[in-house]
Design a protein that fits this description.
Layout (H helix, E strand, L loop, with lengths): L17 E9 L2 E12 L6 E5 L7 E5 L17
Antiparallel strand pairs: 1-2, 1-4, 2-3
């Protein structure tokens, strides 16, 4: 079965398909810290998730990487 390339055109061949973010909520604010990345398996049936740290609270969110931060103080994921 042929694998369909679903990576955005801006990604390098070895670039991760997703970035892993640790998200904690403090009242009405959410704090996002990048903790790792995920790469699609060659057969298209799974991902390898590499974490640089393992959070003990909050949640982990996978988001597709953006070209560059937008320069207005927001993270790559679009959150403040």
């Amino acid at each position: 079965m042929a694998r369909t390339n679903t990576k955005p055109d801006n990604q390098q061949p070895n670039a991760p398909e997703f970035l892993a973010w640790h998200v904690t909520d403090k009242g009405e604010k959410s704090f996002w810290n990048k903790v790792g990345a995920a790469w699609r398996h060659r057969d298209g049936k799974g991902y390898t998730l590499q974490l640089e740290v393992v959070p003990i609270n909050g949640r982990i969110v996978l988001r597709q990487p953006l070209d560059e931060p937008n320069g207005d103080g927001q993270n790559e994921n679009g959150s403040a």
